[in-house]
Here is the input.
Amino acid sequence: MTGKKAETLNQRIRADLESRILSGEWAPGFRIPYEHELMEQYGCSRMTVNKVLTALAESGMIERRRRAGSFVARQPPHLEQVALEIPDIAMAVGARGHVYGYQLLDRAYRAPDTQVEEEMALSAGEKLLAIRCLHRADGRPFALEYRLISPVGVPEVLDVDFNTTAPGSWLLQNVSWTRAQHRISAWGADAAAAALLEVPMGTACLVIDRLTWRGDQPITCVRQMFLGDAWDLVARFAPGAR
Here is the structure.
């Protein structure tokens, strides 16, 4: 009987702590109350509290640090995107409890490649702003981006300092769009991409090519290369939906 009561108390404490974590009340990095505080709160032994915290640590929900206590775990930067949405990568990384980082690799104002149909349509006979950048989570690379922006469709873009601002975030915050086209594929990272992403050549990557319009005017096209274990695309639908 005593064992059954102890088991029930274990389950109750664990369910309570899990609820606070999953609801967001205890955000990633939040320090869980110390063992003696939980003992007092639940009127239980140190052994009971320790079993609960050990189970939560084994499940990946918390991290136990010697002499520092237990903390809500920061989930890996594995991001989920609804397939028909355009995400703000900086916001998505931050929402997972990670520190977002951005690095501008190069910026050029160049003529379109006449052999590439998308570039010709985007340019409307003018030069394009070409940007290559790297997205990071907690200091580690997880996405490489190649972007072209039309100064015809977005003339103010030439005055923006992209040394500190990711172009995708700036566009979402400042430029309205009416339609977009996604092309999704799987690639193995070539030598250049692998070096920037700090992975072996051939590492699996999810590649998203996107062209965005405002009315009839294309405003940007982008290729984003995500490490294969860092990004999910999700489509939600119901029976009979079109």
About this structure: The first strand starts at residue 62 and ends at 65. The chain has a mean pLDDT of 85. Residues 34 and 178 are 51 Å apart (CA to CA). The chain has seven helices and ten strands.
